[in-house]
Amino acid sequence: MLVVFGMELKAQLPSGEDYMPENEETESNALDDFNEHLQIHAININTGHWNDLQQIPNITTIQINAIIEHRNHYGYFKSLLELQQVKGFDITDIQKIRPYITLSLPVKQVIKDLIRQPQIEWQGQLQTKLEKSEGYTDKAKTDQVFLGNRLKETSRLKIGFGQQLRLQIITKKDAGERFNQSSTGFSLQYLNKGLIQEVIAGNFQLQFGQGLCIGNTLAFGKSANVMGIMRAGKGLRHTGSVNNKEVLKGTACHLKLLPSLHVWVAISNKKTDAQTSIDSNGQVYLSSLVNSNLYRNDKEIKSRNNLQRFDVIMRSDYRFKQFQAGLTISGSKSKGLRSIQLRDKIEQKQSKIGIDCQYAFRNILVFHETAMDFKMQESAFIQGALISLDKFTDVSVMYRHYSGKFNSDNTNALASGNGSNESGWLIGYQMRAAKKLQLNAYVDLFKHPEKTYKSDGPSNGKEALIQLNYSERNAYTFVLRYQLKENQFNSREPSGMRQLETHRQDKMRADLSYQISKTTSMAHRIEINRYQIGENTFSNGYLMYHNVSHRLNSRLRIQTRWTVFHVSDFNSRIYAYENDLSSVYAMKAWQDRGVALYTILQYHVNKILQIKTKFASIRYSDIHSSGSGADAISGQLFNEVKFEITLKI
Predict the structure, then answer these.
(1) On the chain, which terminus has fewer CB atoms closer than 10 Å, C or N?
(2) Which residues pair with 501 in a beta bridge?
(3) Burial class for 297, CB neighbours closer than 10 Å (0-12, 13-18, 19+)
(4) pTM of the full predicted structure?
(5) Over the stretch 511-535, which tens digit does the pLDDT of each residue have?
(6) H or E element that contains 93
(7) Which of 120, 110, 206 is nearest to 164 (CA)?
(8) What angle do CA 523, 526, 528 make, to 5 degrees?
(9) Is 5 in contact with 32 (CB distance < 8 Å)?
(10) Segment 82-100, tens digit of pLDDT
(11) Which of 561, 231, 557 shows the shortest CA–CA distance to 369?
(12) CA neighbor of 553 nearest in space, from 627, 605, 628, 501
C-alpha cells in the first residue's frame, strides 16, 4: 500500500522545495510518510533513471540532469563527497538529499572492480621440535604411534577484492599427522552498507550480548582492566580457526532493516570429534567430546567426525540513541554418525533464548542479559554498571547467577568456572592520578550452589586484585600487582571421608619496561606464586624474564627473551605470554625448574615479502622427561624451531 501511495504522490508532487500544498495538514502528513518510505528504500544515484531521481526530495531538474551527465562522463559515484564536483551542488544541497540516496554499485560493476583489483596475502608456517616424542618411536602403544612426520604446517591464503569481498582459506597439519588428515577451513565474507551489511559462508563466530546465549569468539576473563567486564557484543566475525569446537560452519547474514533495527541469521552444520565406548551389551556409543583437533594416531583418528551438529541462531538488535536491546534465539541438534548412539553426556537437543540490553545515561552505563532454555527449567542472568564518578575515578559493578545445569556450550560470559552453577558479585575500582599513575583493583565474591567437578557439595570462593601502574611517557612503565584466589575443593582424609578445604593462591608480580633508544627497548618481569592447601600444605614458584627488542634497520628486527623459573608443582604454575609467529596466541604455563631462551628474527625483504623465524630452547634441571603418553620426550633439553613466510600482492 505504501508503494502505491508513493507512485500516486510522484504524479502529484512537483520536485523542488518551494512547493506548498493546498491542504497543509493533510499533505504534510502524506509528505512525512513518503519521506520515511524513501529513507527505507533509498534511491540509488548510480543506477537510478530520471523518474527515480525525481522522487528525491529537495532536488531540482537541473541537478538531476547534472547527476546523469556526470555519471555518463566520469562513471559511477564512489562517495557522496563527489557530488560537490557536480554542477549545482554544494554541501548544503548534499545534506538535504543525503537521507534519501544510496551509492551502491551495479552488480556487474562490483564484479568488474573485484576481479580487476584483488589483494592477495599468503602466509606459510613451519615448526618442529628437534627432539622426538615417544609417539614417533617403538615405545608407543600400537594405537598411539604417530603416523606422520614431525612438522607442523599451516597455510593461510587471504584474497581481498576491493573493500567488499574477502576470501580466506586455511590448511593446518599438526606434527604427527599425515597430509590426508589435515584440517581445512574457509570463509567468504561480503561487506556492504545497504540492507545486507555482511554475509559469511564457511567458518564464522558469533558474539551477542554478554555471551550467555551465544558467544564463541575469543574472550578474556577477569583482569586488571576493571572497566572491561562488559562484553562488547562483537556480532558476526569470520575466523581463521580450523578447530571444529571453536567455530560454526555454514552461512550467516547481517541485515540492516532500519537504521535502528539489525537482524542476524546463522545456520551451521558441522561434524565434531567424540570418543566412542562400548557398553555391557556391546553397543557402541559416544561417551565424551574431544576438543584437541589432533589426528596423529589410530586412536585419535577413530574419534574424528563421530558427531554431527546442526545449529540455528537468530538475533534482532534495536538501537535508539544510548539504548540498545537484543533478542537471541539459538537451537541445536546433535546425532551420532555411522549408527553410533548418543549418551547423556552429549545432549541431543539444546535450545536457548536470551534478552540483553544496555543503556548509557550521563556518566553511567548499565547492561543486562537473561538467558534460559525453551523449557524454562534452567536460566542464567548477568547485570552490571560502569560508572565514572569523575574524570579520575571509575567504578564497575556486576552480579551474575548461572543455575546448576544451565547449558554453557558456545557461551563465554564472564565467570570463575565454566559458566554454570555459579553466582557472585564483582566490584572494580580504577583511579588515575594525573597522567602517570593509575590504580586498578577488583574483588569477586562467588559461590557454587551445587556440587562441582572438585567439590561434592556447595562451595565458596573469592578473588581479589590490586595493580599500580606508573608510566613516564616515552621513557618507562612500571607495574606492580598482587592477586589472591581462594576456592573450596574436596579433601581426602585417611579414613576416606571427604570434606571441603580451602585452596589459596597468592601471586605477586613486578614489571618494568623502558625505551633505551629509538631502536631498542627492554622489559623485565619477576613473579612469585604461593599455593596453599588447608593450613599446612603449600608450594611455591617464581619466574623471572628479561626481554630485549632491537630494530637493526628499517627491515630487520630481533627480539629475545631469557627466562629463569623454579616452580614446585602444577598447582603453583605461572603463566606468561610470549611473542610468537603471526596469528599465534602463545600463553605458556611454566612448571618445574630450569632456564629458557627464545629469539625471533623478523625481516622485511620488501613490500611483498616478509620472513619471520623463532628458535626456542628450554633446559630443565630437575626432570628427565617432559609430557606424558605418546607426547613424552626424554631428556632435559628441549628445542623448537618455527619459520614463517608472508607474501602480500
Answers:
(1) N
(2) 489
(3) buried
(4) 0.79
(5) 999 999 989 999 999 999 999 998 8
(6) helix 91-97
(7) 110
(8) 160
(9) no
(10) 888 888 888 878 888 888 8
(11) 231
(12) 605
